[in-house]
Amino acid sequence: MSGSPLTIVDHDPSWPERFVLAGASLRAVVGDDSGRVDHIGSTSVPGLAAKDVIDIQITVAELDVADAWPDELLPGLVRRSDIVTDHVPAGSAGDPADWAKRYWSNGADLHVHVRAAGRANQRYPLLFRDYLRADRLAADSYAAIKRALTSAAPGDWDTYYDVKDPACDLIIAGAEHWAARVGWTQPASDA
After folding, report:
1. What is the CB neighbour count within 10 angstroms for residue 116?
2. Would you say the pTM of this structure is higher than 0.90?
3. Residue 143 has pLDDT above 60, yes or no
């Protein structure tokens, strides 16, 4: 798939504040349905280059809770019913429900991933984020991969994700060792 240019920018110090504003608005809409609202993705890692898109994960007890939410959670933030699963890492075994999700996007600068508590795909982005926050070398290497991909395949989103997803899986493998070594557990919710 070719399309809009893929652009990776230097870390923007406004990203945390943008998350706080969006996270508070989302929590007001979904209320008690959300157990957690977290800033995930590259914009959640200080100093990391990223696409200028805030990714938010809302954790719910069960995914069907989100099915009752409005198709437009915030102005312009609409449900994408065509996206109902995450990338499954190579060699992953287990329940396909571990990778199910609900997804909203405004298409420009905000993506909301809704995942069920205790599922592999709910844990993955939190561990990934915290590991990159703790390991500058891994974060810088990840940024270099993303910049190289956008240079090699400008506008080719399929190639970008075909390469980036397995690279993330390599990072998460290291993150799992780090988590065991430091006794990592999911921190308190961000919003």
Report:
1. 21
2. yes
3. yes
